[in-house]
Structures
1.
Amino acid sequence: MASDRLSGGCQCGAVRYALHEEPGDPHICHCRMCQKAFGSFFAPLTGVPREKFELTRGELATFMSSDQAERGFCRDCGTPLTFRYLHSPRIAVSIGSLDEPEKIPPANQYGIEGRLSWFAGLAKLPGEKSTEDDNPDLAGRIAASNHQHPDHDTAEWPLAGKGR
Amino acid sequence: MAKTRVTGGCQCGAVRYALHAPFSNSSICHCRMCQKAFGAFYAPLAGVPLDSFEVTRGTLAIFRSSDAVERGFCRDCGTPLTFRFLAEPKIDVSIGSLDDPSIARPVIQYGIEARIAWVGDLDELPGEITEAPGSEARAEFIKRTNRQHPDHDTDRWPPEGAGR
């Protein structure tokens, strides 16, 4: 069954992973540690038992943000990839690093003491234009030289002959 | 009049920066490249003129996600830090990496072609604080062994005697 395996990885493709079980506890965490680790307003995370997490390419670089938690990322492009409590048998992946993040809607918010006051209004901000409509010339140049790994596993990466 | 000086940096503190001009804009970008680079649902970015951005500690690691764009991050902890179009005299920082992200409330959304259907509903999810009942001991342990750089500049980092 296809849903038995979700794949994901970093932006540059040096690190790829597979989840061999439907991930659980999808959530966003607003705590200040997750904010800074992700350079963002919150960390979106979902987890599986460690033995169901498989690195299929490359190595995770890790930062122990405390003696309790290890955060994995790609040393070549920086994408935040994993979070785990050292004493937990589970590991979480960043939902945005999944190849199909829309499949994993969060069910909870954690760390709400750190939630930014205007977080709730973000979806109502103006923004009717797509990247393509906004600046077609720029979008074209980006598409023509895109170095992001595609949203599926690849037999070989980077593609032969494609300069980085 | 006090000169504008806003600070930020990565989670581990190896890279610190200062901004010497007010933000020209503040946004979230939903495009798939920003999603994967941040491991998240969108990238929150705020821009200043390039010559008003100063790295005050360490060095940005760079991934060129296309020939038009450079993304800066910390090679020691992965925090996504900067974004810049190479043809523009401007650089964006990730809002979550600011020491006080609340000062850069976004005003516009970009890349809405990739906006995840449920992203506007996140604020309505049930929420709990980090020190929720049952989690106090863990929160205390994290606090005691926290290796995250504080949300202000430091003369020395890591503090003397702190194991990393």
2.
Amino acid sequence: MSQLAAPVLLLALVGLAGSFTSRSVQFQFRFALVMATIVIALYVFVGNSGVVSFGHVSFVAVGGFAAGLTTVPEALKLSLSPDLFPVIASAEVGNAMSLVIASAVGGVFAFLVGVPLMRLSGLAAGIATFAVLVITNNVLRNWEAIGPGARTLSLVPESTSFMQATVGVIAVAVLAFLYQRSRWGRVLRASSEDPFAAQGAGVNIYRQRLVAFTLSGALAGFAGGLFVHLLGSITTEQVYLDLAFLTLAMLVIGGVGSLWGAVVGALLVSGVNSLLLSAEDGIGLGFFDVNVPTGTRLVTLGAVMALIMLFRPSGITGGREIRLPGLG
Amino acid sequence: MTDVLQTIVDAIALGSVYALVAMGIGLVFGVMRLVNFAHGELITAGAYALVLTNHLPLVVGIAVCFATVIGLALTMEVAYRPLRTAPPTTMLVTTFAVSFLLQAVALLAFGARGKNVGVLSKLNEPVSIGDLRVRWVTLVSIAVGGMLLGATALILTRTDIGLQMRAAAMDFRTAQLLGVRSTTVIRFAFLLSGILAASATVMLVVSRPLVTPSYGFQLVIPALVGVVVGGMDRLGSATLGGFAIGFAAVVLGDVLPADGRVFLETALFLLVIVVLLVRPGGLFTRSRPAWERV
């Protein structure tokens, strides 16, 4: 339990600190918490199994669209996309229920994808999950019976308040920790350390990976729900390549092997990004004004990420959990 | 019949461009076990070099293009040195971050709107062979692509450094113990991959003259998928994989009904998944690999 305390405390602190700031800054804080949710979901699979997945953003995408489509009024949905399946068009539920649906859709989708794909390892697995990301995006963009297609799904209730973002991310962190401490989590970790020994000891690697993939898909779907309720809108481009690589980079920067790494990586990169964003608008630093030209944010962010990974290949935390003293 | 032939010619042309890109990626992967996402930015840099030298004689433009791309490739080799001992996931994501960084630099320097390259546009004129109408650039792509692939194969099989590279690709540690200098071999792999990227650039800008910051990135993704589908462990199978994905993209685009064409990517990547499931070690390799650790 002492290993869970640090990530949860850090997330709670960020939530608390953010709620005292101005409105525009507040949004940055909530955004960081939602990004941390996505990265923790990704960590549940990648961190425990040692297999890279580019595909998790597709679970974020289906979760986001599911939560969005179930909370927007029917008339609006049909005006965006007249061909919508009646069951999707007529569905209208509350905020909490939409998050449950998002998790369920993410989990079921991950399970269905995982059944064939979890047989693969190494780069083949990475490219196969990448193929899932491309296919999901392509279908969501062009099949207007299941969503708004290439149009923006807007007017989604902006219900991801500080409370919802903080409670949501902490709940996901606790679930991730419980899984990693469970028998299944430990077995999967063992199999990524030494697949031959694990198989020799009777571990069914395929089944263990499938469990992790499904759980992390459900959590990613939930994160997608938080995401759409934070922005109030969603497009297929927002949940595609850029987000996939950004979240993977956050995980690697923090340290792939630990929950603490996932949390630190997500919050650090989000923090740097927010700082650069406000620097582009000009911020006063006491004696002088910093005002960087627009466009330098992406350059700086890319450079910071590349440098951290080049010089800390195992991530900032080294992939280790942190133990708070005095908690046994 | 003519339609089929036309499709096949187009498919071979796109396939040979992807094969060049795939070979560049495969060369570096072979000696370093590193998937270089930023390979696409070599092509982008070369294309912008051609944009900037538009008003100069063509020979100068092409020389500048080659110099830029090779210079960037050798810089990457130096930058990637700390990665040699890094975990595979870190390697993958770091080269992606480098690609992201270079795209951001291009965005800052040249803006999001495309820049036009005017060179070699004469090659876009069609030539009729019987009933077939083929653009010159298609023929040139196939010829140059074939020559470069052949030349690389010759270097790898007939020269000392080629032998060392193949040894390093097979077993890096043992090759080192036998006196192969790791830095020399890796640098040479980046050099060759830069030359291939620059050649691919010159041919690409003819048919796709609009250069944007994500110009090369859009190319490297399918090529990389092809490399893995073909089989990363051998250069030949990786190159064939790149060729196959370009070929399959054109053929699928032709086979799909008109209203299903928007789902081309879905069809292509479903095919990728099926191939990976049936032949996880690669379509063009003989053996199945053991469990890997990535």
3.
Amino acid sequence: MSTQAISKIEVKNVFKIFGDRADEALQLIRNQQSKEQVLSQTGCVVGVNDLSLSIGSGEIFVIMGLSGSGKSTLVRHFNRLIDPTSGQILVDGEDILKYDMEALREFRRRKISMVFQSFGLLPHRNVLDNVAYGLKVRGESKQLCAERAMQWIETVGLKGYEKKYPHQLSGGMRQRVGLARALAADTDIILMDEAFSALDPLIRAEMQDQLLELQKTLHKTIVFITHDLDEAVRIGNRIAILKDGRLIQVGTPQQILHNPADEYVDRFVQRRAIAV
Amino acid sequence: MFPDNLTFSIADWVNGWVDALVTNYGDVFRHISDTLLWAIVSLEGALRATPWWLMLGVVALIAWHATRRILPTLVITGLLFLVGAVGLWDKLMQTLALMLVATLISVLVGIPLGILSARSNRLRAVLMPLLDIMQTMPSFVYLIPVLMLFGLGKVPAIFATVIYAAPPLIRLTDLGIRQVDGEVMEAINAFGANRWQQLFGVQLPLALPSIMAGINQTTMMALSMVVIASMIGARGLGEDVLVGIQTLNVGRGLEAGLAIVILAVVIDRITQAYGRPRHEVSK
């Protein structure tokens, strides 16, 4: 696949351990102890366990796993909402863990944006101000903010709602606002943390189509988190499957469906076969 | 009987400390006291010089701006007119001035402290027991040293009022900021908002109902201190209540007492109306 030639995000041997005795726990997990053993011996929870992967520029990369598999924790490493206990994260070849607060803020303002599962909209601002938030934070002029925000509001199909407040919108519309906010920031990378999981099936399918339609012209690098294999297969160029913070398999949807790496992946695939 | 060899007293130590404070830093406190006194006296002068009808007009305007409804505005203005009608207008203005200054100081101290305490669990752990002490310690206990430092009159009354009235504002500011939705904070962080943008763009606006409830509580508690304040020489409505008790003039005491209640109701309604989110009012 040509899009994989240049890697946009590279994750190298990342561990994330939650708890007070993280160093000790790190030693144990490096010595091949299981997640349960680490928990019983140190009281620490292993979020991400020795994970390495590379995400190509312009692809939709889906990270999939059940709840508790560490996928939401992992995606928060890409914009450093969570810092890893150990390991390396490169974006465009730069080590983002070396950034100080100022550089990190600049990185979040220009290069990476995010869509959240429960939207994370500002309840006291109307749709227009919410969509323009990323632009406003980085100090763009009022006029540019309003213009760009209006343009994206139209693109996601919310024209006429720009003066409404989030509590006046339905779930699907709120997530369109969340999506427009991330797109308006015009960053290379968009992280989507279970962005469509809170929506009902019809709206969800509609949003997936819209995302694919937009991606045809935008060619952003999108990291999409989901627990739903259907969704993953539908929108992903490549899929990574996580279990207990470990990477089980990475591949195109076809590879995942036809050559499941182990019984865990196979169970996902079987469930889907039954459902279809 | 509790054994003698296990008892001890901190009274002498505290007395010595307060004495030293008065002798060594008396001038500093005198200076603070004079500045504060000047502020209260100017405000009181301005309020008392304002014609009563203008004052009522201003209150009516504020009430209208806060509630956007005719009936509450009329009731608020009418109640204040009633206080003037029983001849307590001048004292009402004195009490109002005292309360406004005390509230202003409480806000200037309380909101920044609340913001800091929302940011640091350690500060909060230290602050909360301190606030408990400030609220439960009988006010006469700290009135004595305050009197020694600032003398009789309005200034110690202000201090006593602030000590008693600031805690709810600190608590509610802290609570309001802590209750801001975690995902909203995460989202604005992910878009690179700095601390200033987080605080003024999101945390304070979203905590506003809670902060306004705190200001409301502060004004209410400040008003409940006016009678005690009058015991140490502050003039105003509390003075009439005190005289009413001392001369067994129940009627006079009741009049002044009702005037305090009316002032409380007026301020309560106005601050509560400001605490409601704006865009739901206009809906």
4.
Amino acid sequence: MFRPLAAPVAVVLAAVAVLAAAGCGNPPADAGGRLTVFAAASLTESFTSLGEEFEAANRGIRVTFNFGASSALAQQIDQGAPADVFASANPANLERVAVAGEPRVFARNVLQIAVPKGNPAGVTGLADLGRPELRIALCAEQAPCGAAALTALRAAGVSAAPDTLERDVKAALTKVALGEVDAALVYRTDVKAAAGTVDGIDFPEAAQAVNDYPIATLADAGNATLAAAFVDFVLSPAGQDTLAAAGFQRP
Amino acid sequence: MRRPRRPHSAPAAGTDPAAHDAGAGPAVRRDAGPAGADAAVRRRVAERGPLVLVLPAAVGLCFLVLPLVGLLARTPWGRLPSQLAEPAVAEALRLSLVCATAATALCLLTGVPLAWLLARTDFRGRRLVRAAVTVPLVLPPVVGGVALLLVFGRRGLVGQYLDAWFGLSLPFTTTGVVLAEAFVAMPFLVIAVEGALRGADRRYEDAAATLGASRWLTFRRVTLPMIGPGVAAGTVLCWARALGEFGATITFAGNFPGETRTMPLAVYLALETDPQAATVLSVLLLAVSVLVLVSLRERWIGGGT
């Protein structure tokens, strides 16, 4: 019986092609002009501008970002996600990944209480976060903002009554912006970035939970030279000005 | 109220009301050729499928099974007992089972009538309604969660009145989890039940009606028993989808231990700090869902090996 072999072979090749395409998320190692930066969610606005400035200063270079909870990003990098640079919202998460060279602290950030515009629940300080009748959002303790929140609450001797533990700081901020919670503990920079929809309230215990933001080139960076150039740019006076404008403190 | 007259509670071959009807009833089908030759052909096809189909099928099978094998291979079995004993795990598992079951009940209560409406009645805009019912199927669950927040949230379209009039607030509550899961899982039930209704022989319902049964009685005693397997299959799909729900839940209901942190959320969070714990939780969820599905299948869907 004659059986044309072309059809099965074609199908197998197609299947292989589909599988190969699925594995093509990684940029090739020699992609000269591409830089992938994994950065803490709280860096969303400032690093997006930094990326644009870096692209403007280096023709033909494209910077792509992956923003998220530093803990989630560290886990992704650990599992082989293609990243060149990691900027974490605390040192603990950077220590979990393999880096090339010494991490450098490029910014500091403090917590603020974010409330919906006009502060409908009348929140005045950290103690209000323990009022059970209020809707409170905190970050999950895995995320740096959650760890910092725990430190601050402990320093104030407040046992918080959160209604939800959000994945990252931006998720917590969104719940405030939507008015779904009465207050959330986020970074000062996040309140500043969402100034139109949320108000920020300072509290003294924030000084005891200051987050250091370290940055490093990753050991598996596809483009180590470009990665190092970006790290240098973040630490340069121009980069530091952009971060300061977003509300970060200089290291 | 007792039934006034008794239409057939289940269709039986001998009492087929359509039997006098041109011999096209389901019970009167006759084989065209000799049964032996038919069976032989079928056996040959079953034994040796063409390579063009078998090879991609094998690739597909590997693709579906390998991740599960990997999960089992990497499971730190030694940690299983201590992990299971942790109250947080039991809590998340209990919450997952309760919420998925409640969501499925909600879907059954509203989804079966909806499917009946789509399959058995004719009204303007029915196609639009069917499209709307299937939207959650293609919508990313996170988008569903955002949509739920905008409607049932404290400042949402409906939520602001629930809050003002009844002091009811759904986000960040276990009820919120049930709603999120029901939103995502209901299309599975509706589609399965509507398919079953379309496949069922309407003449049984017509016969019941000519015998004086009301539409509600017909639905209860003729339609429902007829589409039972379809409803069961839809229920199982719906439950399984609700059990695994993640995106809409974390967006709409948030994440708090004992209140809204279901197993998928616990797995996601554990992965960030303790991947081994995440693996153990995943295996547990896998085991529970497989156990429930297998036992349901044997009891209600009648094997079908």
